[in-house]
């Protein structure tokens, strides 16, 4: 701490002496002094460390928020594409059932099929239209959610597969220590450790050096200037609560360390969950794709057998329903995998650059040792 000051006496003081009252023979005149703190047992170091760590903590917390917003926007975009494809599949089901209904209508007109077959076909068409309406409503909601995050509502949504397939392999272990959320938690612990140092330093005095210059001393016999140099020691003989401040600072540091461990555990859990979702999703895609092909083949065979009277209309309509269900489940599985890859990319700390966004919001200072 640097401190410059001055003092002056505006008039002589009266003192009683053995010979009676008289002027003080050594009255100080105007003075200037400079005081420099040379050692404070860690107070300043703790203050600087706390301020620096807190500033870096806030910066990395901002980076972590940016990562989360990027993930939310990417997942919201996937929701739009998911419901867009589900809507197309529902429309395809309606189209297939309407075509089948026309063929059944021709058979009814020709007296080959019963009118009840046409009524059943109408029921299935109406049900498929309900699925299409539901998919369209979900798409509108997903678009609104994405617009709320990005502030824009485009008319065309590109296929996300080409970009997401360029992401890193999900088998690689993320560098958790470099994640903004983890670094922010580390900085919080460092700030708490600096608080401990500050609290402990309060138990010790402060050493300083004071230099002074007095313009003159007023006496009746002489006028002279004076220089002074002092080593100062300042502190509290007793300060209530210092011990408790140290204890509170140590508890704050332990809490910060626990928070850091919790953030790390959460990141590890999210990485593990994303990996499992990617692996499980790949198996689901394979199973539903096979089921879809089987249902399409069965539909063609059942239609021929229906015309020969070997299959009922219910069986034929059920194959169309199985095609729709398998295709919808496949789409859901595909986009579950894409969503898991986005979440894993975020856990790796590389989602924003992978999406073409800046890796960092600001160019921060180099890490301090």
Automatic annotation (TrEMBL):
Pfam families: OEP. InterPro entries: OMP_efflux, TolC-like. It is found in: Cell outer membrane. One of its GO terms (molecular function) is efflux transmembrane transporter activity. Its main location: membrane. It comes from the Bacteria. Keywords: Cell outer membrane, Membrane, Transmembrane, Transmembrane beta strand, Transport. GO terms for cellular component: cell outer membrane; efflux pump complex. Belongs to the outer membrane factor (OMF) (TC 1.B.17) family. PANTHER family: OUTER MEMBRANE EFFLUX PROTEIN, OUTER MEMBRANE PROTEIN TOLC. This is RND-family efflux transporter. It comes from Sphingobium indicum (strain DSM 16413 / CCM 7287 / MTCC 6362 / UT26 / NBRC 101211 / UT26S).
